[in-house]
Design goal:
Blueprint: E1 7-9, E2 19-21, H1 32-43, H2 45-59, H3 62-74, H4 78-89, H5 96-112, H6 116-132, H7 136-152, H8 156-172, H9 178-191, H10 194-210, H11 214-230, H12 234-251, H13 257-266, H14 272-282, H15 289-300
Helix pairs in contact: 1-2, 1-3, 2-3, 3-4, 3-5, 4-5, 5-6, 5-7, 6-7, 7-8, 7-9, 8-9, 9-10, 10-11, 11-12, 11-13, 12-13, 13-14
């Protein structure tokens, strides 16, 4: 059979002739979803979306169909992703693991749409399917998302219960726990235990460092700086922020949103107009408990 070659755009800033031919898509590719997600990591969700489309057209592979929905989610096309998931779930013969993926993606879309409580039901369904399919790694991911939804809706006790269940599975399965620890730090801070928040943020940083996730390292460093600032340890906080800013340059990551926001908070009195514009741009329509609280902190911070 003649093999089709998938053309990938190398960089969105140079769209004219900068296309790269990727390894040819083979109909008998044993792990097309893994291949597609690697394309997404290297070249972006839009390119991977085309790959999954091509894969499903030629093979009718369920995971490629799911890949189409997932890359819509990655691109912020949440309504389209949800509609695709609904269509897939109408197939009652869908294997348990793929049904789990679909319900998990439904929940993830709803969280990004800030419908935190609505996200709980599909995430719980995903958890049950992953239990039936005996997939503890995916159970871990859903438990983290369940906790995230509860955290963002301000239900901290329920959030922490999910996080503790996730820790047990995550350690048992040797999963990366950087995001989980970051969320646990936010919960501790929101509860008023800022020292504990720092401890969890340090665990998060160590995990990001272990897997060499530079943007995550910068993010965690900025959280630590924020928590220190909230304890009144301003000079230490500024040191951590300076380190985060330097890492942004050293690793050439581009702006990391939380780092930008914390810098704006700490430096509000020096640049009040820029801070106001930034908050309007980054936190518009926010409904999550922590970020609403953060927004209030910036707006209410008094300057001499």
């Amino acid at each position: 059979m003649k093999l089709r070659r998938v053309l990938l755009v190398l960089c969105p800033f140079f769209v004219w002739n900068n296309v790269f031919a990727q390894p040819e898509f083979e109909v008998n590719e044993p792990r097309p979803y893994t291949t597609g997600m690697e394309i997404a990591r290297k070249y972006g969700a839009k390119v991977a979306h085309g790959y999954f489309n091509d894969c499903h057209e030629q093979t009718s592979n369920d995971m490629c169909f799911y890949g189409v929905a997932y890359t819509w989610y990655m691109m912020g096309e949440h309504d389209k992703s949800i509609e695709m998931v609904k269509y897939m779930l109408a197939n009652t013969t869908l294997p348990d693991n793929i049904a789990g993926h679909c319900w998990a993606l439904m929940g993830g879309n709803l969280i990004y749409l800030r419908k935190f409580e609505q996200a709980q039901e599909p995430l719980l369904k995903a958890l049950e399917f992953y239990k039936k399919a005996n997939q503890p790694v995916n159970q871990f991911r859903v438990l983290v998302q369940l906790g995230n939804g509860k955290l963002r809706s301000g239900k901290l006790e329920a959030a922490d219960a999910y996080f503790e269940r996730a820790v047990l599975v995550g350690i048992s399965e040797e999963m990366s726990r950087e995001y989980l620890y970051s969320l646990r730090a936010i919960s501790a801070y929101t509860r008023g235990n800022v020292e504990m928040a720092i401890s969890y943020a340090e665990l998060s940083y160590a995990e990001y460092e272990r897997i060499k996730n530079y943007r995550g390292m910068i993010d965690a460093k900025s959280y630590i700086g924020f928590y220190l600032y909230e304890l009144g340890r301003e000079e230490e906080a500024k040191t951590f922020l300076q380190q985060a800013n330097q890492m942004t340059e050293d690793y050439q990551t581009g702006p990391v949103t939380w780092t930008v926001l914390v810098n704006a908070y700490i430096n509000k009195c020096e640049e009040p107009e820029n801070t106001r514009k930034l908050i309007d741009a980054k936190l518009k329509g926010e409904k999550g408990t922590f970020l609403l609280r953060f927004k209030h902190l910036i707006e209410s911070k008094e300057c001499p």
